[in-house]
Design goal:
Elements: E1 2-4, H1 9-18, E2 26-34, E3 38-49, E4 52-54, E5 68-76, E6 84-89, E7 97-102, E8 107-108, H2 112-123
Parallel strand pairs: 1-2, 2-7, 2-8
Antiparallel strand pairs: 2-3, 3-4, 3-5, 6-7
Length: about 120
Amino acid sequence: MTFYYPFNETQKKDLTAKYSEYLDNTIFVHCNRINGVHMFYECPFCFKVGGNIKTTQFKKNGEKYKTVKPNHHFHGSGFQNHNRDESRSSHCSNRKMVVMVVDDDTIRETSDTEQLNLLNKYHSR
């Protein structure tokens, strides 16, 4: 179990209790932003270097890449905008379960009304 965000002690305790049987294979990340379709988080294992995805910020000689940027992954938001934690399988090579935490610091890109409209549009297909 690894926390990749400065969660407060109550959050850590609650998450640890909820996911106790999976702790050896779980990382906890903060959902940076959420919209009507996706939840986004900064991956602690993947980095963008000149348009390529790398699993390290460093070259073979130990120097840090000059153009390294964080890589963001996304998963479905379930047409929901509220605070919660969601578990998903990893998109990258670490193969750990990812628990994304949506809280008051998460940027909402759609309002509750827009969320409802998206949900209704989806179900009217």
